């Protein structure tokens, strides 16, 4: 667990299921377009328990890591950060994150991304981290840029939204070795 002044970053626990489900459902309209699978798996506390069990297994197997961003005052889940699409041979992983609307703009996601980036580079020995976002997600773009991720390219029709429309996404990357950029 990592603790900041107003929030903590922690692994998911089964006891988080009600809080996780509530946060996801309360922010359904916010998450349904770009976080639909996580949302769909957390619509009830029972579904969140299953989700958490899967995430704990993935963490143990080192196939994916999921952490909570928790309001320190209430201990309720404010958001998630996920390190996924891990390619251990190439040393690459992708960061995905979401935050509840009432916690937006507080800098929690930026500080969380900075923390998990340091962890991924120093402890997991990854060499490249990616953030893939849509051009309309200005908050996510700001987080990526504030955390030292550089825009690399447009990923043409790389994401199909729940409405079936294929969208272009923007790829941002950060490297442990700054000389590695542009490869």
UniProtKB/TrEMBL annotation:
Q: What is this protein called?
A: GNAT family N-acetyltransferase
Instruction: Name the UniProt key words of this record, in alphabetical order.
Output: Acyltransferase, Transferase
Cite the N-acetyltransferase domain residue spans from the record. 18-174
Origin organism of this chain? Aggregatimonas sangjinii
The residues forming a coiled coil are: none
Has UniProt tagged this entry with the keyword Acyltransferase? Answer: yes
Q: Does the keyword field hold Membrane?
A: no
One GO MF term, please?
acyltransferase activity, transferring groups other than amino-acyl groups
Q: Output the PANTHER family linked to this UniProt entry.
A: [RIBOSOMAL PROTEIN US5]-ALANINE N-ACETYLTRANSFERASE (PTHR43792:SF8), GNAT FAMILY, PUTATIVE (AFU_ORTHOLOGUE AFUA_3G00765)-RELATED-RELATED (PTHR43792)
Under the heading PROSITE patterns, the entry gives: GNAT
Q: One Pfam family of this protein, by short name?
A: Acetyltransf_3
InterPro entries per the record? Acyl_CoA_acyltransferase, GNAT_dom, N-acetyltransferase
Which family does the record claim for this protein? Answer: Belongs to the acetyltransferase family. RimJ subfamily.
């Amino acid at each position: 667990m990592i603790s900041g002044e107003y929030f903590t970053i922690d692994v998911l626990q089964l006891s988080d299921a009600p809080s996780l489900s509530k946060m996801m459902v309360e922010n359904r309209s916010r998450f349904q377009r770009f976080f639909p699978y996580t949302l769909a798996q957390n619509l009830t506390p029972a579904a969140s328990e299953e989700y958490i069990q899967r995430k704990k297994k993935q963490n143990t197997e080192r196939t994916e890591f999921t952490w909570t961003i928790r309001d320190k005052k209430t201990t309720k889940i404010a958001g998630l950060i996920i390190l996924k699409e891990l390619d251990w041979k190439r040393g690459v992983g992708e960061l995905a994150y979401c935050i509840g609307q009432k916690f937006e703009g507080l800098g929690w996601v930026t500080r969380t991304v900075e923390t998990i980036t340091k962890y991924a580079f120093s402890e997991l020995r990854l060499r490249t981290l990616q953030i893939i976002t849509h051009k309309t997600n200005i908050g996510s773009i700001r987080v990526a840029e504030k955390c030292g991720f550089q825009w690399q390219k447009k990923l043409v029709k790389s994401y199909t939204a729940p409405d079936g429309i294929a969208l272009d996404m923007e790829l941002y990357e950060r490297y442990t070795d700054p000389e590695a950029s542009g490869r």
